[in-house]
Amino acid sequence: MTKLEDHLEGIINIFHHYSIRLGNYDTLNKSELKKLITKELPNALKNTKDQPSIDKLFQELDADKDAQVTFEEFVVLVSRVLKTAHEAIHQE
């Protein structure tokens, strides 16, 4: 695999590491999303331990309002984090 392909697979694996814990094995509920953000993105996102911030983010990501974040919805978060990181690199 190329470096990019390896990183893409890593994102999928991280999602599944948290999604298989409770309920549907291929979606994240709010507590699973919080664990993922707290453990995997503590430096990339602000307020990762602030429940109102997590609630707001969950609502934004849950496009179909089914109380679950699918991988497709999760990719929105990954895209936002990548965009912010890309902008930060150019400011250094």
TrEMBL record:
<dbReference type="GO" id="GO:0031640">
    <property type="term" value="P:killing of cells of another organism"/>
</dbReference>
<dbReference type="InterPro" id="IPR002048">
    <property type="entry name" value="EF_hand_dom"/>
</dbReference>
<dbReference type="GO" id="GO:0043542">
    <property type="term" value="P:endothelial cell migration"/>
</dbReference>
<dbReference type="GO" id="GO:0006805">
    <property type="term" value="P:xenobiotic metabolic process"/>
</dbReference>
<dbReference type="InterPro" id="IPR011992">
    <property type="entry name" value="EF-hand-dom_pair"/>
</dbReference>
<dbReference type="GO" id="GO:0005737">
    <property type="term" value="C:cytoplasm"/>
</dbReference>
<dbReference type="GO" id="GO:0061844">
    <property type="term" value="P:antimicrobial humoral immune response mediated by antimicrobial peptide"/>
</dbReference>
<dbReference type="Pfam" id="PF00036">
    <property type="entry name" value="EF-hand_1"/>
</dbReference>
<dbReference type="GO" id="GO:0050832">
    <property type="term" value="P:defense response to fungus"/>
</dbReference>
<dbReference type="GO" id="GO:0070062">
    <property type="term" value="C:extracellular exosome"/>
</dbReference>
<protein>
    <submittedName>
        <fullName>S100 calcium binding protein A12</fullName>
    </submittedName>
</protein>
<keyword id="KW-0479">Metal-binding</keyword>
<dbReference type="GO" id="GO:0048306">
    <property type="term" value="F:calcium-dependent protein binding"/>
</dbReference>
<feature type="domain" description="EF-hand">
    <location>
        <begin position="49"/>
        <end position="84"/>
    </location>
</feature>
<dbReference type="Pfam" id="PF01023">
    <property type="entry name" value="S_100"/>
</dbReference>
<dbReference type="GO" id="GO:0005634">
    <property type="term" value="C:nucleus"/>
</dbReference>
<dbReference type="GO" id="GO:0043123">
    <property type="term" value="P:positive regulation of canonical NF-kappaB signal transduction"/>
</dbReference>
<dbReference type="GO" id="GO:0050786">
    <property type="term" value="F:RAGE receptor binding"/>
</dbReference>
<dbReference type="GO" id="GO:0005509">
    <property type="term" value="F:calcium ion binding"/>
</dbReference>
<keyword id="KW-0677">Repeat</keyword>
<dbReference type="GO" id="GO:0042802">
    <property type="term" value="F:identical protein binding"/>
</dbReference>
<dbReference type="InterPro" id="IPR013787">
    <property type="entry name" value="S100_Ca-bd_sub"/>
</dbReference>
<keyword id="KW-0106">Calcium</keyword>
